[in-house]
Design a protein that fits this description.
homodimer; mainly alpha; Farnesyl Diphosphate Synthase; two-stranded antiparallel sheet; 2 strands; globular
Chain lengths: ~290, ~290
């Protein structure tokens, strides 16, 4: 089974656990809306790619780690879209969760997806001594002091006090780092060696997002463009200009390729990273990346 | 060390892990505001009381379970107070988190507290085979389909479709059940035998809260009264009248006492439950409870 099919199956199974005949009907629908149809699934694909590169020996643990990380990513998008943050009406070309189901259910769907992520880890890796280390990695990537909720909290600090690198590391980079590290740990390998690869990929992804926000066609993105400037948010495309940001993306992708630790599947993983880096560019800028 | 001191120490240690020199400063402050100064800590006290009754042999796991459950309770209060739910200005006699720190940080503080709860479990029980079962119990109590976020989601369904018992079980009862079960599991005992005790106590607590909301002095409660009626929420005091709700509370407390499974510390635990049931009544109604 290919990686994308494994991820979709693991996410569908997780969401099945969160629904049932005695559940409030609209909560389950709001959670489904947040997770399906699929986005790029870039974090769980990274997780499974690293697990494979490390000689995966526990597919249930790898699937659980990948699904948990994607559920947490989806939860963060639901809360990030809320009126008190980005007030985004559209996500992946459809109404955002709070536009489709109302603000209360968007808050609760996000909360429930966070919990479901940890339940999914416990179900897939609960019998293994790897559960504790996996929880440490995933928890650190999403909570305070340096996970994605902390990254979002930097948007609540005075802009002049925010370090762009620190902000992007916690807003995006750390969940990529966790995806890579959790993939390794799910396969019985040491996680720390994979942090740098994930961080570089995550920073590349954030820079690419900034470029798309500043330069791309809204229809191509599935959400409105120009939000960072309108909302006064930190952005590499605003700080360095679009061409400076493109150079930065190329550098980060090259650093990610160089950061693959020695392992059985290193060659295939480097190829995957190069093709991801190309995919990250808006179509209007494609072809300029040589990672 | 007494139970309350252990709980406060475990919570303070958990929050220390969530802060640091590179963290966004106001997020940590918002999380502290949500957890301290302490409320009644009734759930973690139940957890430690059951662990003790079961012959506690792993205090770190019991402390972690107790702290995790209280962190999840605090997180639910922060989100429950948000403008899109109760729009509560006051909690425990102080401004609610969103009134003190703004709505974005209230959402993020709640999210971070949920994550911190699972991190706390992993830190305290990560080396033990009890981590998986503890996570299953705690996760089921806070997520979908039947945990406290599902309980809150029933408030987003048409009122005529909501079963009061189901609503109260998931809104409050299940976290009490989890507190009792997690206390038992942290001590190596079987959790299921403790569910009924927790459910009855939780339902008693919810009924007491409904009575206080309908009948109590706002200063005594530390938050405004009469919110259930104003917001059209399910309430035992509205369904049965205050005196009917008091009778129901007495019955539930008696059932909780009867539900204590055979164990070394059963006598002490029954005494604790009786004194809790008295404490749950507003001062204006005290003396009528004979549990």
């Amino acid at each position: 089974m290919d990686a994308v099919s494994r991820i979709e199956r693991a996410l569908a199974a997780a969401l099945d656990h969160a629904d049932g005949p005695n559940a409030p009907p609209r909560l389950g629908k709001a959670m489904q809306h947040a997770v399906f149809p699929r986005g790029a699934r870039v974090r769980p694909r990274l997780c499974l790619a690293v697990a494979a590169a490390c000689g995966e020996d526990d597919p249930a643990a790898a699937d659980a780690a990948a699904a948990a990380i994607e559920l947490l990513h989806c939860a963060s998008l639901v809360h990030d879209d809320l009126p008190c943050f980005d007030n985004a009406d559209v996500r992946r070309g459809r109404p955002s969760v709070h536009r489709a189901f109302g603000e209360p259910l968007a808050v609760l769907a996000g909360d429930s997806l966070i919990v479901l992520a940890f339940q999914t880890l416990a179900r897939g890796a609960g019998a293994s001594s790897r559960l504790g280390p996996l929880m440490e990695i995933v928890g650190a990537a999403v909570g305070a002091p340096a996970g994605i909720s902390a990254g979002q909290a930097w948007e609540c600090e005075p802009p002049e006090t925010v370090d762009l690198g620190e902000y992007q590391r916690s807003k995006t980079g750390i969940l990529f780092a966790a995806a890579a590290m959790a993939g390794a740990v799910s396969a019985g390998a040491e996680g720390g060696a994979w942090r740098l690869l994930g961080e570089r990929l995550g920073e590349a992804y954030q820079v690419a997002d900034d470029i798309r926000d500043a330069a791309a066609d809204p229809e191509e993105m599935g959400k409105p463009a120009g939000r960072d400037l309108a909302l006064g948010r930190p952005s590499a495309a605003i700080s360095f200009g679009v061409s400076g940001a493109v150079e930065r993306l190329e550098m980060l992708a090259a650093e990610a390729v160089a950061a693959v630790p020695p392992c059985r599947g290193a060659g295939a993983l480097r190829g995957l990273i190069r093709s991801e880096a190309k995919r990250l560019m808006p179509a209007s800028l494609a072809g300029s990346v040589a990672a």
